[in-house]
Write a structure and sequence with these properties.
By secondary structure, the chain is an alpha+beta fold. 44% of the residues lie in helices and 11% in strands. The chain has 17 helices and 8 strands. A 3-stranded antiparallel beta sheet has the order 1-2-3. A 3-stranded antiparallel beta sheet has the order 6-7-8, with no helix packed on it.
């Protein structure tokens, strides 16, 4: 058997399970072995690690996906080392999983360290691999003996000490200044001219990728995430033409994206912590937004009449008429971003915007800063963003809050009706329109 013909893969899977006497559709991440020549994926028992440690404890698809992907990368690393003839991995080829030892994961961590991964990534690798080895040991699936130490946190959860750090015989290498490659900073804002630059970005979108221009409006004027945008359907829009615009965030993955084997990019994250009827978002509307809205709906209606849309209720569709996936949306946005940056050459903020890392998610930060311009407090920011705590909003506030102010903000948010998170008082929207009267579509 040629090991190079096989590869561990993580996949999102749906199955039916009886919960409290009722049949429920469950989504989970599973680990399988892909046979490259046939394309067949065989389920692997190590999936139980993901299920027991991250699925059964109420973890979301995203919280299962990260450890599953890491375990696959590690096991594929082991396969590569066996193929390379590395003597330390020889027993794995003949004995199998029970011959797995800490030295194998140590070598993986060290390799990734020397590849220049960030300390946060390596620490996460260490945490997942420690959990993985402890799971295997407790299940009597590996033979190596090693100490297991842990202590309970404030939630009563046991946090295990790394089984790789500080072990002399392993000599695991962790990031230092010499090994870590410099990573571009993430862009959270366009600066003082955020309103004008956002309008320019959207105008570029109308020229380069008009099919996502309305989605960009929702992200930069409403703070929606990409996964929340692509899940919207036509009934998600709650609008009074020229006056107010809101969107109802939904999870349409089963209806829209059943053709995809993995829907992480389509995850409407807000529904991880808010129920459907509570996930509504106000959009800061203006003349530009309404112009794009009209054109978008007109285009959809035209495609519908020509029977070119596979799912008539979808709000965003690709060139083949399917609901637009997160991957396609990202590709369209990158096309817009490239043209936008070219249009900025010579602008005083060009170097800062061009040299930082950003995707469409930057819209959430820019939306937040627009609200700060309106004088929103940290509590008002959290409410307007649809957050259930003030932690994310705090990252955008320059002032340092005292402990008393922090407690007051947290208590204020707790008292706020959860069903109104994401809904902005219309007087603030009116104020924003007055501050940004010139945001009109250029002819």
């Amino acid at each position: 058997m040629e090991l190079s013909n096989y590869k561990f893969v993580a996949r999102e899977t749906e199955f039916n399970e009886i919960v409290q006497g009722k049949m429920r559709n469950i989504k989970a991440v599973t680990i399988g072995v892909l046979e490259k020549t046939t394309g067949i994926i065989y389920p692997h028992p190590v999936t139980d690690f993901i299920k027991s440690q991250y699925g059964d404890t109420g973890g979301t698809i995203n919280s299962q996906s990260a450890p599953a992907s890491l375990i696959c990368r590690f096991l594929n690393f082991c396969i590569q080392k066996i193929d390379d003839g590395d003597a330390e991995f020889h027993d794995l080829n003949h004995i199998g999983l029970s011959a797995l030892e800490r030295k194998h994961a140590s070598k993986f961590i060290t390799t990734k360290t020397f590849e220049g991964l960030q300390p946060s990534s390596i620490n996460q690798y260490d945490t997942y691999l420690t959990q993985f080895y402890i799971y295997l040991k407790k299940a009597n699936l590996i033979d190596e003996e090693f100490p297991i130490e842990g202590k309970k946190n404030s939630k009563g959860e046991i946090i295990h000490k790394s089984i790789f750090k500080g072990v002399p015989k392993l000599n695991t290498k962790y990031p230092s200044r010499d090994t870590t490659r410099e990573r571009p900073m993430k862009l959270k804002d366009f600066g003082e001219e955020r309103a004008a630059l956002t309008a320019r970005l959207i105008q570029v979108a109308m020229d380069k990728a008009p099919e996502i221009a309305l989605g960009i409006c929702f992200q930069f004027y409403g703070g929606l995430r990409r996964g929340e945008v692509v899940n919207l359907d036509r009934s998600s829009l709650i609008v009074t033409r020229g006056e107010s615009m809101e969107v109802q965030i939904k999870d349409n993955r089963r209806r829209f994206f059943s053709r995809l084997s993995d829907t992480k990019r389509e995850n409407p994250k807000r529904l991880n912590y808010l129920k459907l009827h509570m996930a509504r978002q106000t959009i800061l509307d203006n003349d530009l937004v309404w112009d794009i809205y009209d054109k978008h709906i007109k285009k959809l209606n035209s495609l519908l009449k020509k029977d070119k849309i596979k799912k008539p209720s979808a709000l965003f569709v690709d060139e083949n008429g399917y609901p637009m996936s997160g991957l396609v949306y990202d590709k369209r946005f990158n096309k817009v971003k490239e043209a936008f940056l070219k249009s900025l050459i010579g602008h005083k903020d060009y170097e800062q915007i061009e040299s930082t890392f950003w995707l469409s998610h930057a819209g959430r930060g820019i939306f937040t800063n627009m609200l700060i311009d309106l004088g929103f407090s940290v509590t008002q920011l959290a409410i307007a963003r649809g957050d259930t705590n003030i932690n994310s909003a705090m990252a955008y506030i320059d002032e340092v809050l005292s402990n008393e102010q922090m407690k007051e903000a947290i208590n204020e948010l707790k008292k706020y009706p959860i069903q109104d998170l994401g809904v902005i008082d219309y007087k603030h929207v009116q104020k924003w329109k007055k501050l940004n009267p010139a945001l009109k579509r250029r002819s």
